[in-house]
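Researcher: Here's the sequence for the chain we discussed earlier.
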Amino acid sequence: MTIPEILETIMLISFGISWPLSVVKNIKAKTAKSMSLPFILLIMIGYIAGIASKFISGNIGYVLIAYFINILSVSVNLTVYFINLWHDKQKSV
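Model: Thanks. This is the structure I predict for it:
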């Protein structure tokens, strides 16, 4: 592993730690009011671009695991957003 890959992995792990915490917070809140769909989608696009860059460059290594873990966590957060949106609609009825 090269120094740039190590630094990239540290960055991804640092960002990645926040996503499961966000998922737990949003599940407990049972509301989508504090969540932003455009933000979640923008983050997902960023991770997809990072994954694509690894495949296009042929630089497939361990850092790719961090990308996949992060996009999985953000995908869970996206699912929670729609569940919470449903909760919000049920409360307003």
